[in-house]
Amino acid sequence: MKAVTETSVKRPDLSVEIAGIKLRNPVMPASGTFGYGEEYAPFLDLEKIGAIVTKGLSLKPKAGNPTPRIAETISGMLNAIGLQNVGIDAFIKHKMPFLRTVNTPIIANFFGNTLEEYGEVAKRLNDIPELAAAELNISCPNVKQGGIVFGTDPRAASEVVALVRKHLQKPLIVKLTPNVTDITVVARAVEEAGADAIACINTITGMSVDIHTRKPRLANRTGGLSGPAIRPIAVRMVHQVVQTVSVPVIGIGGIMRPMDALEFLIVGATAVQVGTANFVDPAAMMTIIEGIEAFCIEEGIDDIHQLIGSLKF
Amino acid sequence: MKAVTETSVKRPDLSVEIAGIKLRNPVMPASGTFGYGEEYAPFLDLEKIGAIVTKGLSLKPKAGNPTPRIAETISGMLNAIGLQNVGIDAFIKHKMPFLRTVNTPIIANFFGNTLEEYGEVAKRLNDIPELAAAELNISCPNVKQGGIVFGTDPRAASEVVALVRKHLQKPLIVKLTPNVTDITVVARAVEEAGADAIACINTITGMSVDIHTRKPRLANRTGGLSGPAIRPIAVRMVHQVVQTVSVPVIGIGGIMRPMDALEFLIVGATAVQVGTANFVDPAAMMTIIEGIEAFCIEEGIDDIHQLIGSLKF
Amino acid sequence: MKNYRTKIISNQEISPGYFRMKVLAPGFDEKAHPGQFVMFRVQRSLPPLLRRPFGIFRTGFLPADCDGLPPIEFVEIVYKVVGRGTSIMAELHEGDRVEVLGPLGNGFDCTSRQGEKILVGGGIGLVPLYMLASELVANGCKVRLLMGGRTRDDIFAVTEFERLGVETYISTDDGSLGEEGLVTRVLERKLQKYPDAEVFSCGPLPMLNAVHNICLTYKTPLQVSLEESMACGVGACLGCVVKGAGHTEENPSYLCTCTVGPVFKSQYLDWSSLQQTDNNCGGCA
Amino acid sequence: MKNYRTKIISNQEISPGYFRMKVLAPGFDEKAHPGQFVMFRVQRSLPPLLRRPFGIFRTGFLPADCDGLPPIEFVEIVYKVVGRGTSIMAELHEGDRVEVLGPLGNGFDCTSRQGEKILVGGGIGLVPLYMLASELVANGCKVRLLMGGRTRDDIFAVTEFERLGVETYISTDDGSLGEEGLVTRVLERKLQKYPDAEVFSCGPLPMLNAVHNICLTYKTPLQVSLEESMACGVGACLGCVVKGAGHTEENPSYLCTCTVGPVFKSQYLDWSSLQQTDNNCGGCA
Ligand SMILES: Cc1cc2nc3c(=O)[nH]c(=O)nc-3n(C[C@H](O)[C@H](O)[C@H](O)COP(=O)(O)OP(=O)(O)OC[C@H]3O[C@@H](n4cnc5c(N)ncnc54)[C@H](O)[C@@H]3O)c2cc1C
Ligand SMILES: Cc1cc2nc3c(=O)[nH]c(=O)nc-3n(C[C@H](O)[C@H](O)[C@H](O)COP(=O)(O)OP(=O)(O)OC[C@H]3O[C@@H](n4cnc5c(N)ncnc54)[C@H](O)[C@@H]3O)c2cc1C
Ligand SMILES: Cc1cc2nc3c(=O)[nH]c(=O)nc-3n(C[C@H](O)[C@H](O)[C@H](O)COP(=O)(O)O)c2cc1C
Ligand SMILES: Cc1cc2nc3c(=O)[nH]c(=O)nc-3n(C[C@H](O)[C@H](O)[C@H](O)COP(=O)(O)O)c2cc1C
Ligand code: FES
Ligand code: FES
Predict the structure, then answer these.
(1) For chain C, does the N or the C end have fewer beta carbons within 10 angstroms?
(2) Is the pLDDT of residue D283 over 60?
(3) Could you tell me if D49 lies within 8 Å of chain C, comparing CB atoms?
(4) What is the pTM of this model?
(5) Residues near ligand 4 (Cβ within 6 A)
(6) What pLDDT was estimated at residue B143?
C-alpha cells in the first residue's frame, strides 16, 4: 500500500450514497461479525469506516443455538450462532449510548420470527433517532409457514418487506439469502415492495462432519458458510442483482483484501460489507479502505463512482 | 497411509452397488474432469477405480465457449468449458474402443440442448452394450424454455428424466445442480420420474473479475465453481438428498483427500466422484481409495456399508 | 488489548509435541493478567483462515540487543501440535512475522489472599497456571500445583514452577513420571488436608468436571479456565458461548468464553451442559 | 509422461525476477522433446489449487553423489515470478518436495534439416528454445537466436545458447542490452538475408502475432509455442483450447494447447481470434 500524502496527490472521493445515507467511503462491517461496534473500537477508528452495521436484532433477546457454533472449513467458516442477540430494548439501553458517540452512520440489522414480529421491530427502530437506516435480514425461517425461509420465497419476501416498509420511517436495506435458484426474482420482489437498497449475500448453507466422531461439526448440523470460499458465488449474485434492480446494491461475501472489495465495486456494488475478515484481522476494513484509495490513485480515478459498475465485457 | 498387507489384516470390503451396477469401490471420477478415461491411463490403473465417468456427451459434437475458460479462485476453480465434446458418434467410434478394453464399469454422462435431444442421446446410448449406466446432466439450459436450466425447475427436471427413462435401457443416474433453493424438491421429482440413483452436486455458478482489466476472468463472464471451496455446501446438499430419497446418492464436490470422501460417505452417499482433484493430482483417486481402506481398517470396519450413512447426532 | 503485528523471538520444542514461542510485544506485560489469552494469526496467507486462541504462559523482558535500547518485552505461549494451525506454527522461526491479538478475556480472580492455593493443571492446561502461580506467590500465598498428564511428555515447565516457590505434585496416567493415576486423586488428598483451600484449574473437560465435583463435595471455591471454538476472541461473533448456571430453554444464559471467560467461577457455569459438550479441543485455556 | 513425486535439486535467481529450478527426474531425459512442458505442483497444501505449466528448459545429468550410483537425472525449468504460485516457487529450496507431471504436449517439429533455423524468443519465451536449439544443432543445422526483452533483465542464458554454437542477437525495448528496439525488426533483416529459413518462436502474443505476419510476408514456415490457462495439462479439462484455422461458429475447431500444442505450425491457427484473446499470461511456453 502506497502512503498517500495530501500534498503529492489529490485524494480520490470515496463517498457514496446508499438509500439516502451519505457514507464517507463504501466499506462497512457485515452484520454479526462486528458485534455492536464497541467490540472493535480498540482496534480501528470507527469514524473512518463507511457505516456501522449491528448484529441482527429481534424483538426479544434471543439465546441462539447450542455449541459448537463455529467450524473452520477450507478458506471459509461455518457458523450456526442462531441469531443470538440482546433484543431491541437492551440494544437501545446498553448499546446505543456508545454508538451515539460515534460520528458514523449506524445501521441496525434486524429480523423477526414471524411476519408480525418483523413489523414490531421495525416500529421500535423508529424510536432511535440516531439510527441512519435499518437492514432487514430475510434469511430467517418463517415460523408460521413451517419454517421456510422468508427470503427464499419471492412472495413471502415481498410481504415482509412491504410490511416493514409500512412501519419503518427510516431508509430500508434488504439483505438477501443466496440459497435460492434465482436471486434476481427475489431482488425484483423486494425492490418492488419498497427496499431502498439491497445487500447480498448472506451465508450459504453448508455442513461439515468430523470423520472420527462421525458427528456434524456444528451442534446445529448445518450452518452458514462465509469467507473467501464463497466470494466467486457472491460476485456472481451481486452482478446479477445489479443488472436487475435500480436501487443501490451492497456487495458482501468473502471480502478479505482491497482487491476483493474492488471486484464487487467493479461489477456494480455501490458499497461493500466485510464479515469474516474482521475476525482474521480486526483492522481489515482499514486496510481495505486504504487499498481502495491507493488503487484509485494508481488508476487515476478521482471519484469512486468512476469505478462502480465499470465492468467491461 | 498405512501399508496394508494381506496377511496382517483382512481388507475391508469396499464394494458398493449403484443403480444395479456393482462397483469394486465407491470412488469414480466426476464428469468433465477425466476426459474419456484414456487421458489418465498413464497415471493410474483404471481397473482400480470404482467406475469411469465420461465427459458429458451430446447428440452432435459441441464446440464449447471461447477462452479463457478457466480461472483459479481461492480454494476453487471456475470453468466455463461450455460442454465441449466429441458427440455421441465420435465417442462410439473413437473413445469406446479403448474403454472397452478396461475392466471397469463405464458410465456415460450426457445432456441435450432440448428435451427431444436428451431423448435422442438416451436412445443412442442403448447401442453401446459395454456401457454400465448413463448419467444425465440436467444442469443445462433449456433452449426452448428461454434458457432456464432444466435442473432448477422440478417440473422440467421431472419431464426430462421421465423422457430419458422411457428411452434408456440402462441404469439411470441423474446429476443435480446445486443452484436451487431446495435441492430436495428436485431430488424427489427426479426419483419419482425414474432415476435409479442421484449424483450431486454439479458446479455452483460463480464469477471473478480481473480488477486491472475490469473484465470477467472467464470469456463467458460466469462459470461453475468447483473444488474444496464448495465442499461444505455439497456435503449439506448430499445430506439433505439422502434424507429425502431412497435411491442411492453419489456425493460430489471438492473431494481432494480421503477424509473428504469419508465425510460424504458418512452423511450417506453410497459412492463419491472426484473432480477438480484429478487436475491437481492425476492419481488422487488412488490415494483416496487407499485412504478409505486404511480408515476402515483403523476403525475396525470390514464392510464400507457400516460407514455409509453412519452420521451421528 | 491490541493487535500486535510483530515477530517471533524464539520457538522451541520443549517436550515431544509441545512448543514454547516468545513473541515481541512491547507494552504487553503491564496489561496482561493471569488466565488471559491471545488470538494468534499463524500467517498472512490461507489456510488457516481463522486465528487460534492460546493462553498466555507468561510475559517478560529480555536484555536489550544493545546498550541504550530498552529491554525486549515479550509474551510467551506454550502450544501443543494438534492440527493444521499448530503444525504450521511448529515450523515458524525466529524473525518470522506473526500477529498476536491480546491480552483478551477475563483471567483468574486472585484477590483473595486467604488459605492455601491449589492449582490443578492437565496437559496443555498448565499454561495459564504459570502466571497465576507467580501472582499468587507475589501476593504471599502458599501455592501447590498438581500437574497431570497422560505420559511424562505432557508435563513441562516443572523447574520454572518450582523456581517460583511452588510445591509441585506430578501424576501421569501411565506412571511414566510422578505418581501413577489421575491428578484428581491427588486433589482429594490435598483438600482433606487443607479444607480452607481455593482451587484453580485448567485442563481437559472430563478433568475439570471431576475437579468441579470434588470441590463441590469439599465446598471449596473453584475457578476454571474453559476452551471453546473461537472465531473473533473479542465478543463479536458469539461463537464461543457456554451455558451459565440456571440456563433454561425459556430463560437462556449463554456466556462468551472469550469475554466473560475463559476463567469462570465454577458456580456460575451450567455443568450438566458442559458434560455433554463434545468439545474435542484436546487441550485447555 | 508421469507424475514425478520428487525433490528440488537447486533453485536460483538468474536475473531479477527470473529463476532456474532443477528437479530430480529419473527417466525424464529420454522422453522429453523440445517444446514440451510440465505441470508443476508448487506444494501439497493450498493455495494455489491448480498446478502451473512451465516449458522444459532442458534435461540432463549431474555427477552421481557417490561412486557406484547412477548419475543424477534432472529436468530444468526457468520461470518468471508473476503471481502467487511463482512467488511460492521462488521461496523453495534444495530438498523441498514437489510434483512434476511431464513431459507433456507436442513440441517442435525439427525433422527438417534444410535451410537456416531462426529462433525468436521474447522474455520467458526463451525457455523452450534451448532444447530446440540443441536438437537443431545436433541435427547439423545452422541456428540463429533472436532474443528480445523489455530490458536486459529479460535476457538470460546467453552463454548457454552460445556454448551450443548458436549465433545470438539481442534486442531490448530500452536498449539496455544489445540493439534497441523490437526483436521482430531483427527478424525481418534476417529473413531478407535467409529467404529459405524456418522460424520457431515463443513469447508474448503480440510478438508472436508480429512474427506470424512477417513470416506470412516472407512465406517462411513458422512454428509457435502458445500459452493458455491450463487446469489438467493432459487434454481432460478442455480449458486450454485455441481456435484452429478455419474455425467458424457453425463448424468450430478448438485445439487443446496442452495436447495438440503447445507448439503449433502457424498455418493451423486462427490468428484473428488469437489477436483478440485477452491472454495476459505475460510469458510464454
Ligand atoms: C481460550 C483458549 C485458550 C487456549 N490455550 C491454549 C494453549 O495455551 N495452548 C494450546 O496448545 N492450546 C490452547 N488452546 C487450544 C488451541 O486453540 C487449539 O489447540 C488450536 O486452536 C488448534 O488449532 P489447529 O489448527 O492446530 O487445530 P485444528 O486442525 O483446527 O483442529 C484440531 C483440534 O483443535 C480444536 N480447535 C480448532 N480450533 C479451535 C479454536 N479456535 N478453539 C479451540 N479449539 C479449537 C478442534 O476442535 C480440533 O479438535 C486454547 C483454546 C482456547 C479457546
Ligand atoms: C504451456 C505453457 C508453458 C509455460 N512455460 C513457462 C515457462 O517456461 N516459464 C514461465 O515463467 N512461465 C511459463 N508459463 C506461464 C506460467 O504458467 C504462468 O506464469 C504461471 O502459471 C503463473 O502462476 P502464478 O501463480 O505465479 O500466477 P497467478 O497469480 O496465477 O497469475 C498471474 C498471471 O499468470 C497467468 N496464469 C495463471 N495461471 C496460468 C496458467 N495455468 N497458464 C498460463 N498462465 C497462467 C494469469 O493469467 C495471470 O496473468 C507457461 C504457460 C503455459 C501454458
Ligand atoms: C458469525 C457470523 C454471524 C452472522 N450474523 C448475522 C446476522 O446476525 N445477521 C445477518 O444478516 N447476517 C449475519 N451474518 C452474515 C454476514 O453478515 C455476511 O453476510 C456473511 O458472513 C458473508 O460475508 P463474509 O464472507 O464477508 O463473512 C453472520 C455471519 C457470521 C460469520
Ligand atoms: C472442467 C470441468 C468440466 C466439467 N464438465 C462436466 C460435464 O461435462 N458434465 C457434468 O455433469 N459435470 C461437469 N463438471 C462438473 C463436475 O463433474 C463436478 O460435478 C464438479 O466439478 C464438482 O466436483 P469437484 O469439486 O470435485 O470438481 C465439470 C467440472 C469441471 C471442473
Ligand atoms: S470468540 Fe467470538 S464471541 Fe467469543
Ligand atoms: S489443460 Fe486441460 S485440456 Fe488442456
Answers:
(1) N
(2) no
(3) no
(4) 0.94
(5) B 30-33, 55-56, 79, 81, 83, 109, 137, 175, 202-203, 226-227, 230, 252-255, 274-277; D 237, 239
(6) 67
User: For residues A235 and A265, what is the distance between their CA atoms, to the nearest angstrom?
Assistant: 10
- Rounded distance between C-alpha atoms, residue C43 and residue C64, angstroms: 27
Residues C7-52 have pLDDT tens digits of 999 999 999 999 999 999 999 999 999 999 999 998 777 779 999 9
Q: Does an H or E element contain C90, and which? A: helix C84-90
* Given B140, B230, B265, B296, the catalytic residue: B140
D52: helix, coil or strand? strand
Q: Within 6 Å (CB) of ligand 3, which residues are found?
A: A 30-33, 55-56, 79, 81, 83, 109, 137, 175, 202-203, 226-227, 230, 252-255, 274-277; C 237, 239
Written as nine digits, the cell of C153 is 511428555
CATH code: domain D117-228+263-276 is 3.40.50.80
Report the distance separating Cα D50 and Cα D40, nearest Å: 9
Interface touch B67/D50, C-beta < 8 Å: no
Segments making up each domain of chain D, as ranges: 2-104, 117-228+263-276
The CATH number, out of the four listed (1.10.10.10, 3.40.50.720, 2.40.30.10, 2.60.120.1440), of the domain defined by the range D2-104: 2.40.30.10
Q: Is C49 an interface residue toward D (CB < 8 Å)?
A: no
How much is the average pLDDT of A69-94? 94
Alpha-carbon gap: C42 to the closest alpha carbon of chain D (Å)? 15
Which residues of chain C fall below pLDDT 70?
Answer: 275-285
Q: Which of D238, D240, D259, D279 to mutate to test the interface with B (most CBs of B within 10 A)?
A: D238
Cα separation, D215 vs D201, in Å, equals: 11
Extract the C-alpha cell encoding C230: 473461537
H helix intervals, chain A: 87-90, 96-100, 115-126, 154-167, 183-192, 231-244, 258-267, 277-280, 284-298
**D1 contacts in B (CB within 8 Å)?**
42
What whole-number distance in Å separates Cα of residue C112 and Cα of residue C135?
12
Q: Is D45 on the interface with C (CB under 8 A)?
A: yes
8 A C-beta contact, residue B106 and residue B52: yes
Separation between Cα atoms, residue B194 and residue D182, nearest integer Å:
65
Boundaries of every domain in chain A: 16-306
Q: Which amino acid is at A138?
A: I
CB contact under 8 A, B278 and D241: no
Q: Three-class SS of residue D76? A: strand
**Cα gap B280→D44, rounded to integer Å:** 9
Nearby residues of C131 by Cβ (< 8 Å), 6 or more positions away: C32, C33, C34, C35, C56, C57, C58, C59
**What's phi and psi for C18, nearest 5 deg?**
-115, 135
Q: Render pLDDT for C253-279 as a digit per residue (tens, 0 to 9).
A: 889 999 999 999 999 999 988 866 544
Residue type, C2: K
Residue D137: phi, psi to the nearest 5? Answer: -60, -45
Q: Is 3.20.20.70 the CATH number for A16-306? A: yes
